[in-house]
Amino acid sequence: MAAGRKRAPSIKDVARKAGVSVSTVSRYLNGGRNLSEGKRKVIAEAVEDLNYRPNTIARALVSNEFQSIAVIATDISLYGSMQLLQGIELAARRRHYLVTVTLVGNGHEKVKETVDQLIQNRPVGCIILDVERSSLLHSFAGYIAQSLPTVIVDEADLASGSLRVGAYEGGYQITKYLLRLGHKTVFHVSIPEDDKKFTRCLGWRRALEEAGAPIEEPLPCTWDFRKAEQIGRYLCSFPEITAIFAGNDEVAAGVIRGILLEGKKVPEDVSVAGFDGNPIGEVTVPSITTWRQNFQGIGAKAVERLAHWPDSDDQPETKGVDGTHKASEEEELDLDQLQQSRAMGDEQISSRLIIRESTAPPQSGHGR
Amino acid sequence: MAAGRKRAPSIKDVARKAGVSVSTVSRYLNGGRNLSEGKRKVIAEAVEDLNYRPNTIARALVSNEFQSIAVIATDISLYGSMQLLQGIELAARRRHYLVTVTLVGNGHEKVKETVDQLIQNRPVGCIILDVERSSLLHSFAGYIAQSLPTVIVDEADLASGSLRVGAYEGGYQITKYLLRLGHKTVFHVSIPEDDKKFTRCLGWRRALEEAGAPIEEPLPCTWDFRKAEQIGRYLCSFPEITAIFAGNDEVAAGVIRGILLEGKKVPEDVSVAGFDGNPIGEVTVPSITTWRQNFQGIGAKAVERLAHWPDSDDQPETKGVDGTHKASEEEELDLDQLQQSRAMGDEQISSRLIIRESTAPPQSGHGR
DNA sequence: CTGAAAGCGCTTACAG
DNA sequence: CTGAAAGCGCTTACAG
């Protein structure tokens, strides 16, 4: 098996061709300190002639580190995860890291095995892409973090250990915006897993609390957007609902469709806002008001976090314990801490409200 | 640098703990032929106790093959590429391959360098994801194929060397469907790069030719879907246009929006069909008729292709020349060959027309 | 069935 | 500034 492939030229070939020792070639390859101009030139030529590239695998073996970043996710087909992944790749490329992607289904299969194998690949670090806030992934975060620098990117809006996508902020802002428009309250159709702590849903709730507006329990949608359509229709039976905040733009589209199908108008009869900033929202009818998240920027941040992980370079003995559990501190954070860390502007990432056609002040006579 | 990380238990540790030689442990790890029950048991225990996992990097060094599949793309944020990637990952996982993703921008930067580095990683094979049919990527395909088993997945509907996404077929079918509805002809709004050979655009053209319908040059859209909206508006100035086939579902949404904004109706005044089967088309108003492509299935096929690459296993001396240039044979294929290979049912993948609200027979009085 | 040895391609001290 | 040697963690013949 395997075998067969023709071996590429090795450092030995270069050394022979250049008439120097392997160590000298190695020195040349690694910055070339302490190297005479003569050798440098002759080696350069040999490298050129042979079209030699150092074997990354061999390097990884001795350094015990493969220049790569392992991305673990349950699904990458959502708009957010994709953008995140793309942002990660772009940033990784700049640092000459290879990015690796591994999907771990929610069917608990042999996740442990998969994860163990991943760790054996000795990546520089691991990014857990958990846009869906899958409990599966979160439960493995700690385990992974024991062996690898790990950062979690999820919906959560938390301060340490994981990067916040700003969903809390977004939920809060979009709800305030709707309230400012004159709506008495805002109804929420949540995406799966979105009713946990620190998410867009929490932001929505907080905005309503602050305004003293009535709070109805959110209706959960699924990743099948036709469910959103059903919800939209259903919601039409409550004339007092004049504003809906949907968990993402696709759900918003579905809800809008449901409403239109019932013969009501958006935004005249009811305003609907989405979330994420999916470009599709620009071209639907009506176009969809949304909260744009800078996914690519966040992905890049995650990579930088890993690249600057406190390690033997910076703080020789700090690694391990210190870095290890950050990822799970999430559980202990509360909103106040959150507010505070936000105030400190740490990890702030540009995101913003995009107002389009699907939202407007309530029609007079409506609202309750 | 690098350093610092605590080394995981090695095969040596296992050998010591089990009281056997390293070779014996290795034998155990690789299937365990010629191993006494006693040793087997004691080694199993040692492995368990130490939570030992073989170092994939070391293995890769000796076998000269890292159990991974390298995916190269210019962009993975389109619906199609994402699904493809996800399909690749799923199939790769079954075979215990790691998948690696590399984006090469269209800005010709240091693509060569990036690609060379990728090759040094010794993946099992390479999948070029070229949904956009970037000439950049295609120009590197041959180069990569010289060192690695390579398969190209693109819009093309070709037989050998690259997997067909069935776009030709789709364009053909969707156009015929529109024609059958009674439209005199079908206008095409193409996605970037889609006016090349063997694509949905070609299928569209062929269907019109067969029907003897008038053929207008397609209007090219960009990846910015607001451009599609402009096109939609523009197209309204031609009342003879009653049916439009858009290059993908997002473009279709944009075109529809443009038409609606002009005060016309879809599908009453003009029918609009999309392409790809993006779920978003289910919840727009109107919902969008489309051609569903089985992206995940195609991704999986690509992986299998690589896994079964004729190599030292199957045909010891065939590799190299044989596998190498398949990828570029594309250029020589013509439609007849295409038809033929399709007839042979090779690489056939389930795709189908999905009829929704955005298409209907032309209103009487319209059509020309 | 089992072990000692060599080697994969590189880097890292260690001597000159 | 330069080279010989050892070693990273495994696998693969080669002897027993």
Automatic annotation (TrEMBL), chains A, B:
This one is known as LacI family DNA-binding transcriptional regulator
Chain residue ranges for the region called Disordered: 308-368
Q: Does the keyword Metal-binding apply?
A: no
Q: Which domain of life is it from?
A: Bacteria
- Please state every residue range assigned to the domain named HTH lacI-type: 9-63
Statement: the UniProt record of this protein carries the keyword DNA-binding = yes
Domain HTH cro/C1-type span(s) in chain numbering: 10-36
Compositional bias (Basic and acidic residues) spans?
308-328
Q: Which UniProt keywords apply?
A: DNA-binding, Transcription, Transcription regulation
Q: Which organism is it from?
A: Bifidobacterium kimbladii
